[in-house]
C-alpha cells in the first residue's frame, strides 16, 4: 500500500515525490513510461562522452528565490547566461533583437536611444494585443516581424503567429540596449553535474520507489494507493472523452562532430531557412571541455511525443472542460506542463509543484494517519 502513486518522474512528479516523502514520511511509488527519470530535462553522456540533453536544450532561469533555493538542495550550480544568434539575411545577429541586431542587419551605427526611436517609428499601431503577430508588429513593425518571427513560428507551431496567443512570441523580448542575453532572470545557472544527477538526488529518499518503463495503465489496477499525482497529459487521463488536446512535437537529430566547435553561439536560430528551427551546441551550456562537440537540430512536427501545449483560445476552452472534470476528483492531483496544459518553463513547474504540496498538506488523509 502506497500513500502516493505519482505518474511521471519529470520536475512535477519528482518535486512532489521528494516533498511528500521528506515532509510527510509518505510511502511513494513513482512510475514513468520512459526508461529514465527527469522527464524532458533528462541529460546523459552520449557515445563520445559529451553531456547532452535528449529532448533539446534546457536552460535553467528563474526569478523565484524559493524555487532556486529548493533545487539548490539537490545540486550545485554553474553560472550560465544563455545567448542566441539568429541567421537572417546571411548574417548571424543577436536574438532577442537588440541595438546590435539592428545595426548589424542594416549596416548602421545607431545609439541605443536612436534604435529606440527607430523601432517606435516602424512599429504598427494595434488597438489590442491578442495574437502573437500583434505582439511583434506593434513593437518592431512588419519587416523585422517577417525576418525574425513569422517563419520561425510557422515552422515551430505549424500555425501563423496571427493564430497563436500573444503569450507565445511575448516570451522573447525586444531590447534597445546592447544586452544580448536570452533571459534577464535573477537566477541563471545550470546544474553543475547535469539535470539527471539532480533528479537522482531528489528521488533518493528511502521512502520513494521508482519504476521505469511503466505506464500508468499498467499499474493503476495493480497497485494500492491513497492519493494519485498525475503529471501526464490530462486528456489521456480522461480517455480523451472530450477529444484530444493538441500538442506540438519535435524530432531531435543529435550529432557529434570531430572538431572543437561547431558554431559561434550556444544556440543558432534559423527562422527562414531549413526545416529545423535551431541548432544547440551542448558544450557551451555545460562548460564541458572535450575535443569533439555534440549538437542537436530540432525539427518541429505534428505527430510524436507531446512536447508543447498549443496556446490558442479553443484549446484553452477544451482544457477548461478537462479541468472541470479534474476538479471533481479530490484525491487526484494534476500537476505540470502536460497535466495542466500550460506552456511552462521548468521553474514554473517546480513552483506549481511546491504550491500543490502546500495544498496537499492541508487535505491529505495520509498526513492525518501519521
Ligand atoms: P515532463 O518533463 O514532460 O515529465 C512528465 C513525465 O511523465 C514524462 O517523463 C513522461 O514520460 C511521463 N508520463 C506521461 N504520461 C505518463 C503515463 N501515462 N504513464 C507513465 N508516465 C507518464 N524549460 C525551461 O525552463 N528552460 C528551457 O530551456 C526549456 N527548454 C525546453 C526545450 C524543449 C524542446 C522542450 C520540449 C521543453 C523545454 N522546457 C524548458 C520546458 C520543460 O521541459 C518543462 O517545463 C518541464 O520539463 C516540465 O516538467 P513536467 O514534469 O511537467 O513534464
Ligand atoms: N520565436 C521566433 N523566432 C525566434 C525565436 C522565437 O519567432 O528566433 C517565437 C516562436 O514562436 C517561439 C516563441 O517565440 O515558439 C518562443 O520562443 P522560445 O525561444 O521561448 O521557445 P522554446 O525555447 O520554448 O521552444
From TrEMBL:
InterPro entries membership: UDP-GALP_mutase (IPR004379), UDP-GalPyranose_mutase_C (IPR015899)
Gene Ontology molecular function, alphabetical: flavin adenine dinucleotide binding; UDP-galactopyranose mutase activity
Taxonomic superkingdom: Bacteria
Gene3D superfamilies xrefs: NAD(P)-binding Rossmann-like Domain
GO cellular component: cytosol
Cofactor(s) this protein requires: FAD
Residue ranges occupied by any UDP-galactopyranose mutase C-terminal domain in the UniProt entry: 147-343
UniProt keyword list: FAD, Flavoprotein, Isomerase
Annotated coiled-coil segments of the chain: none
EC code: 5.4.99.9
PANTHER family per UniProt: UDP-GALACTOPYRANOSE MUTASE
Family the UniProt entry places it in: Belongs to the UDP-galactopyranose/dTDP-fucopyranose mutase family.
Protein's UniProt name: UDP-galactopyranose mutase
Species, as recorded: Silvibacterium bohemicum
Amino acid at each position: 500500500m502506497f500513500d502516493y502513486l505519482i505518474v511521471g518522474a519529470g520536475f512535477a512528479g519528482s518535486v512532489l515525490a521528494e516533498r511528500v516523502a521528506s515532509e510527510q514520511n509518505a510511502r511513494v511509488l513513482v512510475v514513468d513510461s520512459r526508461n529514465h527519470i527527469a522527464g524532458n530535462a533528462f541529460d546523459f553522456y552520449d557515445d563520445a562522452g559529451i553531456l547532452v540533453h535528449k529532448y533539446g536544450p534546457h536552460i535553467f532561469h528563474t526569478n523565484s528565490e524559493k524555487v532556486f533555493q529548493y533545487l539548490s538542495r539537490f545540486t550545485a550550480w554553474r553560472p550560465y547566461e544563455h545567448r542566441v544568434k539568429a541567421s537572417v539575411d546571411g548574417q548571424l545577429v543577436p536574438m532577442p533583437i537588440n541595438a546590435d541586431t539592428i545595426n548589424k542587419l542594416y549596416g548602421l551605427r545607431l545609439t541605443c536611444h536612436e534604435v529606440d526611436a527607430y523601432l517606435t517609428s516602424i512599429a504598427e499601431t494595434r488597438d489590442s494585443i491578442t495574437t502573437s503577430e500583434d505582439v511583434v508588429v506593434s513593437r518592431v513593425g512588419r519587416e523585422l516581424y517577417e525576418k525574425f518571427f513569422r517563419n520561425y513560428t510557422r515552422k515551430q507551431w505549424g500555425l501563423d503567429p496571427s493564430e497563436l496567443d500573444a503569450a507565445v512570441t511575448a516570451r522573447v523580448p525586444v531590447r534597445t540596449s546592447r544586452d544580448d542575453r536570452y533571459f534577464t532572470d535573477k537566477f541563471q545557472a545550470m546544474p553543475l553535474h547535469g539535470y539527471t544527477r539532480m533528479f537522482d538526488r531528489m528521488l533518493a529518499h528511502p521512502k520513494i520507489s521508482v519504476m521505469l518503463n511503466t505506464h500508468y495503465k499498467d499499474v493503476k489496477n495493480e497497485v494500492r494507493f491513497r492519493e494519485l499525482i498525475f503529471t501526464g497529459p490530462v486528456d489521456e487521463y480522461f480517455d480523451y472523452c472530450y477529444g484530444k488536446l493538441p500538442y506540438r512535437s519535435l524530432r531531435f537529430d543529435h550529432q557529434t562532430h570531430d572538431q572543437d566547435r561547431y558554431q559561434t553561439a550556444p544556440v543558432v536560430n534559423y527562422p527562414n531557412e531549413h526545416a529545423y528551427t535551431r541548432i544547440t551546441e551542448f558544450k557551451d551550456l555545460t562548460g564541458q571541455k572535450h575535443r569533439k562537440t555534440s549538437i542537436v537540430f530540432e525539427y518541429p512536427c505534428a505527430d510524436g511525443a507531446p512536447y508543447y501545449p498549443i496556446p490558442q483560445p479553443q484549446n484553452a476552452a477544451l482544457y477548461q472542460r478537462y479541468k472541470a472534470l479534474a476538479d471533481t476528483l479530490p484525491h487526484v492531483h494534476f500537476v505540470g506542463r502536460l497535466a495542466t496544459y500550460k506552456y511552462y518553463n521548468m521553474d514554473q513547474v517546480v513552483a506549481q509543484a511546491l504550491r500543490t504540496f502546500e495544498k496537499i498538506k492541508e487535505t491529505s488523509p495520509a498526513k492525518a494517519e501519521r
